[in-house]
Amino acid sequence: MTSVLRSFFYLLLKFPLRLFLRSKIVLDAETAVETSTQPIFYIVSHQSASDLLALQKACKDQNLPDPLSKIKINNKLFERTICLTKPTSLFGFKRRKTQALQQGLAILNEHHIDKTLDGQLIPVNLIWGRIPTKEKNNANVSSLLAEQASPTWLRKFFIVLFLGRDNLIRFSEVLSLRNMSDNHGNDKDTAHKLLRVARFHFHRQNIAAKGPRLIHREQMFTALFANPSIKRIIKDEAKNKNISPEKVKKQALGMMEEIAGDYSVSLVRLGERILRWLWGRLYTDIKVNNSQVLRKLAQDGHEIIYVPCHRSHMDYLLLSYVIIQEGLVMPRIAAGINLNFWPAGAIFRKGGAFFIRRSFAGNRLYSTIFREYLGLLFERGYAVKYYTEGGRSRTGRLLPPKTGMLAMTIQSLLRGIDRPLTLVPVYLGYEHVMEVGTYHKELSGSEKKNESILGVLKAIKNLRNYGNGYVNFGEPININNYLTEQVPHWKDAIDPIDPQKPNWLTPTVNDISNQLMTNINQCAAINGVALVALILHASENKALAKHDLEKHLDFFLNIQREAPFSEQLTIPEENGAELLAHVISLNKVTISEDSFGTIISLDSSASLEMRYYRNNILHTYALSSLICRLLTHNSKISNEQIVNQSINLIATLKEDLFLWQTPEQIALQVEQLLTTLESSGVIKHTESDFWSLTKDTQLLNQIHLMAECIDESLQRLAIITSLATRLTPLTRRELEEKVVAIAKRLAVLNNITAPEFIDKKSQSTLINTLREQGYLALNDDGLLVVCPSMTELKSSITNLVSIEVLQSIAR
Predict the structure, then answer these.
(1) How far is it, in rounded angstroms, from Cα 539 to Cα 534?
(2) Kind of pairing, strands 70-73 and 285-289?
(3) CA distance between the termini of the chain
(4) pLDDT tens sequence across 349-373
(5) How far apart are alpha carbons 371 and 782 in whole angstroms?
(6) Which of 595, 669, 766, 807 has the fewest beta carbons closer than 10 A?
(7) CATH of domain 711-810
(8) Residue 354 DSSP SS3
(9) Residue 597 CA: distances (Å) to CA of 196, 545, 591, 657, 702
(10) Strand, helix or coil at 372?
């Protein structure tokens, strides 16, 4: 086809194609190729008019050169787009060859001739429908349409007709043809290698976007019944309970039916459209960060296991939607059995959910079936998502991890899976959680209500503007690498038939679980609602003048921008005034006026709600608040004292707040924070290496308010250290009960409405940490006693807590 005829054909096809085309564009990396003076080329899988026109539109949206245009190099014209394959002929079975090899070789030769030339090659993958291939006896029309790698023009017509509005266009990172030429040469072998790598690259991307071959749940049941572990447990159950194996099989089948998902591509596509509309109504924006790590893991062949924090039932929908929007396949989701109510249960199953009971209660048959079902998902290559907290957080803080799912994950690895299993921690944040009101009722003693269709309808009725949603992907944990580093001989436990539970499994699972939680906290998202909540709860009477609140917001933001809690932390780009205006628009605060101006405050109801959002980010200001506390409670203090006390005190709060810093990292962050405070004019440094506060009252107000953020944590430590030094030896249970009793009294005296302040589990966590840090120990009678190091810790804490609190504890 001549250039003129081809251009005319594309022109005729362009308008009708737009009627059926809707593309989702995914960029693997932000590049500045549109401003590059070097020639830009594209490489795609198919020489298809619909593909090239879809690519043309996408390139226009991204301010990239037209892929249908030609480019001149050294007075020679080159096609800008290299196509790997041509469509299969309508009445034949062979694919016709393209000019890809000749094009690639010619371009590389130009790089050999002209050493200043550095062509930029962008691999672009176009995926229509994102429908996984299926087992032959389960294939349907849509899967047959999308299955053929290089369809005929007639089949492509139907693909565009039925799947055109679900088109994914993924731009990969730019490749330098200069590097290819210099490092690999300019001959035919190099051109062949370039095309071969591109084909494999697109194949991996197709698997990441569509998922592995899809099998029906009945086929999964057949595979499970053939599993040696399930065969053995059925035989043991029949023998121990003196019933027939057929009866046990029937029970096992019922459990499989209860657990297993029933994934439907068509329902997921419909759900994506509904959620796109829903998020448009609910959220101002959904902010996603570090998603490129997912695509790299998927393309490198990793088995991805998403492990998010759990704030709301919205989590299931929001994270799944974001994953699909990022060009990856929907994961299989572990959902609590409480969500298996009509009609939601059936819908969730079709959306990829599988259900898990809250407790296995010693049910060996159920636990074996669930473990092997999870292992089968991994073996088949399905991405999985589960919530290691075991339930939604009612306080806004991370909950201690439940280790069952992670233990079963590692046991699946011991079957000899040949792909790396990688955990991806995910921080989910909201400026409004619709269940917060219910959470406070439950924490106040109200009975938890079971989920029902009426509750769903009521939630839909109350939908309104929820502000922003945040999905931050944290630092992945490659389980294979982790085990190799921590348990060098872990592969000795691999048994494809019957993996055992090695002695190292439990402590390793506990360590990885805690690492997951700290990784989630590292990638937290600071937002306007959480920051306003943090500041107002630190202020007296939970009220501030609007102007002062804006100044405090700027101060808190500047701290994180100059000395961030972690590299993965995301910080708003807006200033304090803009953030406050946004929070006011969400009706989260009370606005009142007097003759001096506007006052922003929290009433009793809002205070309870806003505490939830405050707790989402409290950990990110733990160290900076502690440093401010040390500075405000000492007229002068040396650099060494600040570092040492920060290391010791943060260590005691590490498990309670899931903090990640090592002593060396704390020391480095202390230096950064002190430098930031000094440059802000809040503190000054003497030549004798002492720090002291400024005399500027406005700046003093800022540092005093930040120092209050950690006050409740220090009070809880003060209760434990004071009681332990006065009352030990005593049992752990006795200490916990006395600590909770005093915490309740302090909560009343100091008007502290925080449920975690009086929570027994929270106190237990602090006591455990003090034992691990060597401040408490067990004597020969199994009673808790204080260690010599406790005296110094108690002195440090006592110096940072108000005299009224200490007197209340003493009484």
Answers:
(1) 9
(2) unpaired
(3) 95
(4) 999 999 999 888 789 999 999 999 9
(5) 36
(6) 595
(7) 1.10.10.10
(8) strand
(9) 69, 7, 10, 37, 20
(10) helix
Tell me the three state secondary structure of residue 597: strand
d(CA 433, CA 609): 9
Q: Give me the phi and psi of 102, to 5 degrees please.
A: -65, -40
Tokens representing 234? 């059925």
> What length does the chain have?
811
- The answer to whether domain 266-522 and domain 544-708 are alike in fold is no
Judge whether 378 and 421 are in contact, CB under 8 Å.
Answer: yes
State how beta strands 353-356 and 468-473 pair.
unpaired
Q: Give 49-97 pLDDT, tens digit per residue.
A: 899 999 999 999 999 999 999 999 988 999 999 999 888 776 655 556 7
- 618 vs 537: CA distance, rounded Å: 11
Structure tokens at 570: 């995301």
416: part of which helix (H) or strand (E)?
A: none
Partner residues linked to 424 by β-bridges: 306
Angstrom distance (rounded) from CA 241 to CA 247: 11
- Range with the largest mean pLDDT of 132-146, 229-243, 451-465: 229-243
Gyration radius (Cα) of the chain, Å? 30
Q: Pick from 490, 548, 551: which is nearest to 680 by CA? A: 551
Question: Residue 143: pLDDT above 60?
Answer: no
Packing angle between helix 697-708 and helix 546-562, nearest 10 degrees? 70
CA distance 224 to 108: 53
Please state which of the four CATH numbers 1.10.10.10, 3.50.50.60, 3.40.50.1370, 2.60.40.1180 is assigned to the domain occupying 544-708.
Answer: 1.10.10.10
Q: Partners of 83 in the beta sheet?
A: 44
Token pair in block for residue 280:
């448009």
Show the beta-strand stretches assigned E in 2-64: 23-27, 40-46
Beta bridge partners of 385: 306, 333
Tokens at 606, concatenated:
């809002």
Residues 6+ apart with CB under 8 A from 40: 33, 64, 65, 71, 80, 119, 120, 122
- The Cα diameter of the chain in Å comes to 95
| Residue 755 near residue 395, CB atoms below 8 Å | yes
| Residue whose entry in the numeric block shows the structure tokens 């609910």 | 282
- Give 746-751's long-range contacts (Cβ < 8 A, gap of 24+): 746/715, 746/719, 746/805, 746/808, 746/809, 749/804, 749/808, 750/715, 750/804, 750/805
Q: pLDDT for 397-442, tens place per residue?
A: 999 999 999 999 999 899 888 889 999 999 999 999 988 888 877 7
> How far is C-alpha 300 from the geometric centre of its chain's CA atoms?
19
Alpha-carbon dihedral sign for residues 102, 105, 109, 115? positive
Extended beta strands in 452-573, E state: 468-473, 477-478, 543-545
The token pair that represents 36 in the structure block: 């590059």
Identify each DSSP E strand in 412-498 by its residue range: 421-430, 468-473, 477-478
User: Which conformational region is residue 418 in: left (phi greater than 0), alpha (psi within -120 to 50 degrees), or beta?
Assistant: alpha
Rounded CA-CA distance 427/522 in Å is 9
Structure tokens at 18: 């737009």
Give yes or no for residue 501 having a pLDDT over 60. yes
d(CA 809, CA 807): 5
Q: Which fold has domain 266-522?
A: Glycerol-3-phosphate (1)-acyltransferase (3.40.1130)
Contact 24, 34 (CB under 8 A): no
Residue at 621: amino acid letter? Y
Cα-based torsion angle of the residue sequence 310, 313, 314, 316 in order, rounded to the nearest 10 degrees: 70
Q: Are 211 and 384 in contact (CB under 8 A)?
A: no
Rounded Cα distance between 811 and 722, Å, is: 11
Q: Are 213 and 133 in contact (CB under 8 A)?
A: yes
Write out the H or E segment, with its range, that includes residue 798: helix 789-800
Give the CA distances from residue 486 to residues 481, 505, 509, 547, in Å, rounded to whole numbers and listed in that order: 9, 11, 11, 52
580 contacts 553 by C-beta, under 8 angstroms: yes
